């Protein structure tokens, strides 16, 4: 689950149910595409922005600039707090016409449905499939739902073009094994493997994911950095943010400095890209891969 996501508690769920016991769904306009849309997921929110329909409220708006960065969230979008414990009184007062959610928040579904029409989109689930093609399908579905079919198709085409451009720019790195990680502390990383959006994009860009180990259905595993020694020939990209004290401690760490890619200078910092996003995040990550690796030697 996202680093910024909090665990859904029984107490929070019961409080949500109690607060909505007397709430009725918000108004909707017969035959009109919903305009007042709330998203409890960053990936769906970034897709709304890309389709030209900013949400009126999102979960965890205060963390958007840290994890998503672009597209920028316009001012005035209401912060509903953590998705699992969203401010339901505020949500009801906003009179949304449509609430977007995911299976991760399935237990809130009946509560949300008392406020407004609620639609769930499955991008990260245990079922077979990976995030990029699921995001393509979800973009089409969302575009049809809000009357933005042509914009949805344009976004899909733009994502295909972005992948192709990055693949061409990285042609000399074709097949290069790359670890993509987020640092948890000085000894542990979250490494992104199969079933992650990052893995899908790396494949589309012609790179090889150096992590072949087990992952959860979000597409990552939390491992000790010593496990990265299994591919000393790889490059390693770490995605910001990284705590300043972790960065400083790594510079002094004998374990870190013993790793093959560290000794060879094949470690790269990358600006933030949402690891649990949809097509806009996939496009941002592809662009950042290009910026990070295009100027580096193909080998060594």
TrEMBL record:
**InterPro entries referenced in this protein's UniProt entry, alphabetically:** ABC_transptr_periplasmic_BD (IPR002491), Bact_iron-sidero_bind (IPR051313), TAT_signal (IPR006311)
A Pfam family of the record is Peripla_BP_2
Q: Which residues form the Fe/B12 periplasmic-binding domain?
A: 36-297
Q: Does the keyword Transmembrane helix apply?
A: no
Compartments annotated for it: namely:
Cell envelope
Signal peptide residues on this chain, from the entry's feature table:
1-30
Which ranges does the record mark as transmembrane? none
| One Gene Ontology cellular component | outer membrane-bounded periplasmic space
Alphabetic keyword roster: Ion transport, Iron, Iron transport, Signal, Transport
Family according to the record: Belongs to the bacterial solute-binding protein 8 family.
- Protein name (database record): Iron complex transport system substrate-binding protein
In which organism is this protein found? Answer: Ancylobacter rudongensis
């Amino acid at each position: 689950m996202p680093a910024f996501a909090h665990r859904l508690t029984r107490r929070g769920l019961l409080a949500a149910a109690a607060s909505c016991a007397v709430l009725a769904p918000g108004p909707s306009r017969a035959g009109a595409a919903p305009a007042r849309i709330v998203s409890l997921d960053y990936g769906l929110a970034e897709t709304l922005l890309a389709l030209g329909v900013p949400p009126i409220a999102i979960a965890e708006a205060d963390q958007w600039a840290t994890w998503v960065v672009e597209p920028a969230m316009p001012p005035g979008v209401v912060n509903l707090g953590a998705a699992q414990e969203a401010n339901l009184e505020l949500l009801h007062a906003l009179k949304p016409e449509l609430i977007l959610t995911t299976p991760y928040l399935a237990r809130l579904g009946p509560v949300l449905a008392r406020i407004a029409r609620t639609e769930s989109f499955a991008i990260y689930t245990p079922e077979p499939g990976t995030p990029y093609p699921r995001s393509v399908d979800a973009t089409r579905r969302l575009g049809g739902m809000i009357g933005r079919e042509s914009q949805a198709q344009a976004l899909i085409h733009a994502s295909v073009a972005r992948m192709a451009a990055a693949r061409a720019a990285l042609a000399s790195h074709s097949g290069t094994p790359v670890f993509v990680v987020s640092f948890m502390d000085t000894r542990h990383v979250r490494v992104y493997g199969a079933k992650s959006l990052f893995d899908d994009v790396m494949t589309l860009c012609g790179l090889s994911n150096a992590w072949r180990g087990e992952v959860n259905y979000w597409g990552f595993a939390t491992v000790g950095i010593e496990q990265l020694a299994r591919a000393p020939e790889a490059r390693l990209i770490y995605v910001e943010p990284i705590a300043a004290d972790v960065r400083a401690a790594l510079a002094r760490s004998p374990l870190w400095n013993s790793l093959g890619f560290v000794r060879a200078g094949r470690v790269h910092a990358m600006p933030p890209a949402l690891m649990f996003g949809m097509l806009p995040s996939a496009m941002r990550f592809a662009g950042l891969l290009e910026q990070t690796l295009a100027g580096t030697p193909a080998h060594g």
